[in-house]
Design goal:
The chain is α/β, with parallel strands linked by helices. Among the domains are: 101 residues, Serine Threonine Protein Phosphatase 5, Tetratricopeptide repeat (Alpha Horseshoe); 40 residues, no CATH class; 108 residues, no CATH class. The N terminus is likely disordered.
Amino acid sequence: MDAMDRDDEETLRARAQAGDAEAMVDLWLALRHGATAGEGEVFVRRAVEAGSIRGARMLAAWLGRTDPAERERLLLLAAGAGDRTSAATLADLYYEAERWPEAEEWLRRAADLGAGWPVGERLALLLARRGADDEVWELCLRADDDPGGDFHGLAAAVGFYSLSEALAEEGNERDAARWMKEAYDFGLGGAIVRFGEERERAGDLVAAERLFREAGADHALAGFLERRGRVAEARELHEAGGDSDRLADFLERNGDPAEAAAIRERLRREREVPAAEADWVTTVATVVTTVALIPFVEGLVGRLAEGAYDGVRHRLRELARKLARGHETAESTLIVVHDPHSHLRLHMRTDATDEALSALRTADLEGPGGAVRWNPEIREWERR
């Protein structure tokens, strides 16, 4: 420990001993990896007793690895005091444990506290399972009125679409089709494409083409035209979008591998990143998820027992595959975690180093806007 670190610890200790609850939490963060970790825990527990919601939330994440019951108790304490992050985390805990009544209760509370659509999506699924259609409608329509929402004007349609996909994954095809129809009626392009694909499978090609055009999704229409042998029209649509992996794939499928290779080379050059910036962006693949950021990170580092870094990286790769909707992801994929409330974005790579993962425990994820990325030169998560 250098002199500056010692001064910081002494300052925190003095403030903590004077009764500053937040200093108690910060002192615990400074001590918890060292020989005096037990002393640090005494301070953070004093902070929780003094009413520190932050202390309860962070201690819950830390103890989740070894004491799930205490984690639950602390989350209940913080969530009961109105902490949105803890309410959302608690709802996730109950949902993953399939404790459905408790999951619904805390999903409702988290939604009421403004936790946003990722919470609302799970709540809608629970409501749909028990046939509470009116409440599903209300929940999805309310998302359109949320000024911090992600979909502005199309939130209800996206909600119906997401619900349909979740029900289909569970094998409930009848209800999945019904909610997809609601998304279609609200004019969501993805739902219109789904119905176009359905009409194509049924052999109604005129209706299918009309729907693909109505959806405004050129790649879906190009795929339909290609399947129908109208290759020239499909090529025009792909080329209208400029160089792309889709265009290269199309050319390879249709007998022009040389041009496909030339396009891939142009794309490779465009995506090259100077060595100095290589750790700030990925040239391979990017997937995006919109979730409450702090619960996501706390859930991740809560599983970060000593030596468990490979397990965390495995979890990140599984998440990347899920977000890529079944497409094969690259070994080094960038996951962008976007918080819908603060609009802060965390950039994480699926091959993150042990050091980067460990440092997530103390990364600054508070405050609005910007992007947080790992900077290997200063060995910190840095906000830009």
